[in-house]
Amino acid sequence: MTFYFAIIGTKDNPIYETEFGTSKQGGDGHARFPDEQRPMNQFILHSALDIVEEVQWVQKELYLKTVDRFNNLLVSCFLTAGNIKFLLLHDSKAEDPIRQFFADVHEAYVKTLMNPFYEVDMRITSTVFDSKVRAAAKKYL
Which CATH number applies to 2-140? Predict the structure, then answer.
């Protein structure tokens, strides 16, 4: 299984992006998107933002589960209290590991927000944050 993860800011700007593969069931953790699919990943996630904005006012929970589909790929979403969106493009139907992944990434994001040199909607370039995201992906996905 292959995943593309992005954090979208309050102005619909990408704050952080990465792709990775599964580490479960003998996976090596490398993304396996076809070459013609890679440029579409960002477009697919951003097209799901309209649906996220509709659903976020209906549901009371921060984890919105699967909000959109594109061919055989699903888009799952988690909202923060500050309206930052965590979007995951995947082909897995298991919701619980994705929810746990989002919870770990949210914790790392909150710690990034507490940094006095970081402002909301700034691009996250920290290697520590990246390693925490990848560790959560390896642990749950």
Answer: 3.30.450.70
